[in-house]
Design goal:
The protein is mostly beta strands and 115 residues long. The chain is 0% helix and 52% strand. It has no helices and 11 strands. A hairpin with a 6-residue loop joins strand 4 (32-38) and strand 5 (45-50). It is globular, with a radius of gyration of 13 Å.
């Protein structure tokens, strides 16, 4: 079972980054997926979620209108398009897949927003 993130890095305020998480070893379409963020000194918090059959999304108030979560149940990928980045978007981002009896986590990927 693997859930591997990619796409993090450094961006300037107002810039964009896209995170992706590729799933393998489990039936991806059976799991709801989310992106979490852990910022310095804070608990890990959910940023965005999408149901296992795409169409139902939810966002934290802090990212509404700027971030877009999407998933591809054929390629087994969940993505997070991050636009209009702010300094406070800096943190380590984790993808997660939640099923009936388990939650699978990615390893985490760093996003730094700095001028």
């Amino acid at each position: 079972v693997q859930f591997v993130e990619s796409g993090g890095g450094l961006a300037q305020p107002g810039g964009s980054l896209k995170l992706s998480c590729a799933a393998s070893g489990f039936t991806f379409s059976n799991y709801a997926t989310s992106w979490f963020r852990r910022s310095s000194g804070k608990e890990r918090q959910v940023v965005a979620s999408v149901s296992n059959f795409p169409g139902s999304t939810r966002y934290a108030d802090s990212v509404k209108g700027r971030f877009i979560i999407s998933r591809d149940n054929v390629r087994n990928i969940v993505s997070l398009q991050m636009n209009a980045l702010k300094l406070e978007d800096t943190g380590e981002y984790y993808c997660s897949a939640s099923g009936i009896s388990e939650t699978i986590w990615g390893q985490g990927i760093q996003v730094t927003v700095s001028s």
